[in-house]
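B., you asked whether I could sanity-check this one before it goes into the benchmark set. Here's the sequence:
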Amino acid sequence: MLPPELPPLPALTRAEGELIDRYLDVVDLLGRINPTQHGDTYRGLRAAQALVGKAAELRDALTLMHQRGESELHSPTLARALRVLDGERRTARVTVPPRSDS
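And here's what the prediction gave me:
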């Protein structure tokens, strides 16, 4: 049995696609650094070191959009793209988990 087919990505400019990709790179690294997630300090350290470069790439993607005159983020379209790319699960790793009162 095949897994369900994902919906297609919405139409994005090349710069918007780059923004989404770099944003998810940063989110993934922040999820690895999150002290509420299971892992060791070395893993977090490596992610923090990589974060510097990925944050610069994210900045560059936004700078390029601005220079090209793409001054507005089309949040509904970008949100759809993030959902298709599993952004909800990936960003959940950055948050603090709910309190367990057990």
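One thing to flag: Helices lie at 14-33, 41-67, 75-84, 87-92. Otherwise nothing jumped out at me.
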